[in-house]
Amino acid sequence: MTAPNGTAVEIRRLVKRFGDFVAVDDVSLEVAKGEIFGFLGPNGAGKSTTIRILCGLLEPTSGDASVAGFDVRKQPEQIKRNIGYMSQKFSLYDDLTVEENIDLFNGIYGVPRARREQRKDFVLRMSGLIERRKTMTRLLAGGWKQRLALGCAILHEPQILFLDEPTSGVDPIARRDFWDLIYQLSAAGHTIFVSTHYMDEAEYCHRIALMFRGKVIALGSPRELKTSLEGHHIFNLHVSDLLGAMTALDGQPGISDVAVFGGGLHVTLADPQSGVPEVRRILARESISIADFDAIEPSMEDVFVAMIEQEARKAV
To answer: Which residue spans of the chain are classified as CATH 3.30.70.100?
Structure first.
């Protein structure tokens, strides 16, 4: 199967089984060239398995996929030469310096000798590690390690970059900085395929596939997915007794969902005209005072929770 012009990744009815366990279940989607495409879902949803198939590291049980126009079954070696891959676990060598790691991967990726110094300089500048080039890699903080790993993954200037939960275990500020680098690469024409279980990171993607139990349960831009929640009116609620309010509201008629969000609650109502007075009545009965009760746009976390609940109801 050859990817059409303008398409970087194409997947058709992809399935991967491990014995009786179905890790990837009939997944179909396309990723455009230059797009930042996100796989969002909890651990075990099938994100990493799908990425490994697309990188030519696993063979699918059934279905088809192409990456940069190469078939994952028939041309895995061509795929590996045209992609960069960064796993969720730090993949460089702790007992080498920053510069030595770059030199090593310049050789592994077969970067022409005449271009190796230029590419090394690019990676050092992109990652902000010029002043740390002689530092042992094990001494770098997590965020700097991830920047270095990203730089090494693009030494050979791949068309497509696969990032498998690249910011796992990294602090929020370092995650934001890392995403700035992803935007720079996308603007330079790279296609970025990134998996994450951080809901806020999904906001940074052009499009997202929500994965759950091996299936893609929703696909679209963050805006499209948020506006797809018809019948879900979400309110941000701050009260004097968070746990008491959650217990009192959970399962009440007209209240679709109650979840802790930051220092308050996100309350999802089927009909706000009747639901808002009902929430106030229930909390007043429990002597719980309300500080704020405002309608809000759903977050990606709200979207994901709603989609998961829909899937659970289908299963029942």
So the answer is: 230-297
Average pLDDT over residues 25-45: 93
CATH of 7-226, one of 3.30.565.10, 3.20.20.70, 3.40.190.10, 3.40.50.300: 3.40.50.300
Residue with tokens 């030595």: 100
Predicted pLDDT of residue 246: 94
Q: In which residue ranges of the chain is CATH 3.40.50.300 found?
A: 7-226
Q: Per the structure block, which two tokens stand in for 248? A: 């009192």
**Which residues have a Cβ under 8 Å from the Cβ of 282 and sit 6 or more positions away?**
248, 249, 252
Which CATH code is given to the segment(s) 230-297?
3.30.70.100
Residue 2: exposure state from Cβ atoms within 10 A (0-12, 13-18, ≥19): exposed
* Entry pTM: 0.81
SS3 126: helix
pLDDT tens by residue, 227-269: 887 667 899 999 999 999 999 999 899 898 898 888 899 998 9
- Count of residues in the chain: 316
Quick one: pLDDT at residue 316? 62
| 133: β partners | none
CB neighbour list of residue 98: distance below 8 Å, 6 or more residues apart: 124, 129, 132, 133, 134, 135, 137, 140, 148
Q: How far apart are CA 237 and CA 254, in angstroms?
A: 16
CA distance 259 to 264: 9
Alpha carbons 301 and 7: distance in angstroms, whole number: 29
Predicted confidence (pLDDT) per residue in 128-184, tens digit: 999 999 999 999 988 899 889 999 999 999 999 999 888 877 788 888 888 998 998
What is the pLDDT, as a whole number, of residue 4? Answer: 41
